[in-house]
Amino acid sequence: MHTVDDIENALEIDIPSSGSLRLEDSRRLTGPGLLWDHTGAVLEIHYEGFDPQQIANLWQKYARSVLDAVGWQDQLITERGFEGGHNLAISAPMDQLYSAIFIAETAWHFGAAKLLASETGDFDEMINNLKSVMQREANPDLTHLIEAGQAHGVEILCDDDEVSIGHGQYSQVWPVSNLPDPQDVDWRELRNAPVALITGTNGKTTTTRLCAAIARAAGKVSGLTSTDFVRVGDEVLDKGDYSGPGGARLLLRDKRLEVAFLEVARGGILRRGLATRSARVAIVTNVAADHLGQYGVNTVEELARAKFSVHRALARDGVLVLNADDAYVVTEAAQTDVTIWWFSLDADAPQIRQARAAGVSCAWEQDGKIVFFDGRDTLSIADVSDIPITVSGAARHNVRNVLAATCACYAIGIAPNHIAKGLANFQSDPNDNPGRFNEFDVNGARVFVDFAHNPHSIAAVTETVGGIEARRRFVLLSHAGDRSDDDIREVTKSALELNPDFVFAAELEDYLRGRELGDVTRLIVEACEQNGMPADRVIESGSPSEAVAKVIKALQPGDVALLLVLSERDKVFELLQR
Question: What pLDDT is stored for residue 393 in this prediction?
């Protein structure tokens, strides 16, 4: 069998381009995503001065022509326009996704040549080249196994190296080069585990961790993926950003796993798609401006549509859990035809009233309690004051996260008493929820560390900290260099809503991402001064740990500090715990 490198680099398609028309990216789609629920390939093209409808028409024409010529008459075509560009996609069998990229690029070769009046390659020769690569990449054993898995109702997860059937303790893994005959597989031993997908702009990591803690309280071996690590039970399998399909496969193949909670970030959805098609529940916590301008997602409305891709990964009887307090979520929900369980801080929210009248499950906060309606009975799950991450209800964003987790865990079969136990046991500390509103007592001052990094999340934590009585207030700010100047000014402005007495601006030397050293701190300082902060109250530092050391030295009893730490968290925790 040929190696991935052999196939991935087998062809180089010469695509005409100009200053006003270029191919930005070509990607394999390994699961459901923004465009649809098929595997295949997608191209991202950027252009100026061309008619979007002409782009779409040319794509339909040439993609169909090339697909038919290579023998893929049953494969589908789609496209999506966005400001300044287009996504162009074809479906393809799971065993030939690199070939699918070459096929898509070949189709666009002819489309781009038409637009730019350029010469084209020889159609028959290019088709023959495609067929040669397709033959080399094809893996009939994988195709037969996928078909058998579908017939048995058991999910199959594939990557370049391994193929697995089932999830967790009911899974089995084989090398992709040595797959079994479906008749030799003991299908009775293989099944899907309860899986929850958690996405949103903010709160998804906390909600994922909270769900895993609830499952643990129910006696389950729970696992999670996140932007920080993959964990099964108490063991961290690996650290890093595992909020995409690679992390999901790593977790779902662990033989100890009984129930899985997968944090799903925007990037993973748009780059590759979702890892599963059998989720019992999916959550969208909220939608706000963040990482706009990437992968053809330029507006908050488009971002909402991308987040809602999780509904494509639901099993037939799956449930979508949504935030009724978020306008973007409510709007996008109207376009989504699945079973929805709403949650809200307001018992009288229209979505809550409608769900209760229709006998559909939902959750809300009322009179200081987390309340869940199971479709028939109204259950009081827990007092908000007994749930540490809510800070006795002051952390309104975490009350919403609790409501979301309550719905999700009930949907996968966890009893209300175990939900209450898990909520009460989950602490806002570096062990249970590192980097998410962790509190420390330093020199008689209250210090909060949070990973908030966009205006929406910073507004949530400043609202909470703003309700705490303080003699003086301190804020530490830093930012990665791949955000725009306006983004950095906006997050600075959000933090200043706390009315701090001192602001510490920290450089992130490992996250310059194209900027010069000092650019980001300069923007933070300028934004502080433009919003009325005296220059001598804004202190620059070379790193977060250096800034935290300065804050610790300045703190006195009765002070409150909010440290928005985006890197060096372990070092910062060590400084604070001393």
Answer: 93
CB 167 within 8 A of CB 256: no
Q: What is the pLDDT of residue 2?
A: 57
Residues 6+ apart with CB under 8 A from 544: 476, 478, 506, 508, 563, 565, 566, 567, 568, 571, 572
Tokens of 432: 């249970």
Give the type of residue at 188: R
| List of long-range contacts for 427-430, beta carbons under 8 Å, 24+ apart | 427/388, 427/389, 428/388, 428/389, 428/391, 428/398, 430/573
Give the span between the Cα atoms of 519 and 487, in whole angstroms.
13
Q: How confident is the model at residue 454 (pLDDT cuts 50, 70, 90)?
A: confident
- The DSSP secondary-structure symbol of 47 reads E
Residue owning tokens 């009887």: 317
C-alpha span between 307 and 313 (Å, rounded): 12
Instruction: List the beta bridge partners of residue 174.
Output: 163
The DSSP symbol for 182 reads: G
The one-letter code for the residue type at 146 is: I
Element containing residue 260 per DSSP (H, E): strand 259-263
pLDDT value of residue 3: 65
Please write down the HEC assignment for all residues of 358-417. Answer: HCCCEEEEECCEEEEECCCCEEEEEEHHHCHHHCCCCCHHHHHHHHHHHHHHHHCCCCHH
As a whole number of angstroms, the distance between CA 520 and CA 525 comes to: 9
Q: Record the tokens describing residue 523, joined without a space.
A: 């923007």
* Mean pLDDT to the nearest integer, 25-47: 96
DSSP notation for 68-99: HHTT-TT--EEEEEETTEEEEEEE--GGGHHH
Q: Tell me if 298 sits within 8 A of 292, measured CB to CB.
A: yes
Least confident of 5-19, 307-321, 447-461: 447-461
Please, are residues 61 and 69 in contact by the beta-carbon 8 Å criterion? Answer: no
| Whole-structure pTM value | 0.91
What's the CA gap between 173 and 269, in Å, rounded? 24
Q: What is the pLDDT of residues 215-274, one digit of tens each?
A: 999 999 999 999 889 999 999 999 988 999 999 999 999 999 999 999 999 888 999 999
pLDDT digit string (tens) for 281-326?
999 999 988 767 788 889 999 999 999 999 999 999 999 999 999 9
Average pLDDT, the chain: 93
Name the pLDDT band for 70 (thresholds 50, 70, 90).
very high
Quote the Cα angle for 523-457-555, to 5°: 70
Strand order in the sheet with 77-82: 21-29, 40-47, 85-91, 77-82
Apex 447 CA angle, 365 and 502, nearest 5: 115
What is the residue type of 197? L
560-564 and 259-263 beta bridge pairing: unpaired
Domains and CATH numbers, the chain: 4-137 (no CATH), 140-189 (no CATH), 195-425 (3.40.1190.10), 438-577 (3.90.190.20)
Q: Which two tokens stand for residue 537?
A: 């109250």
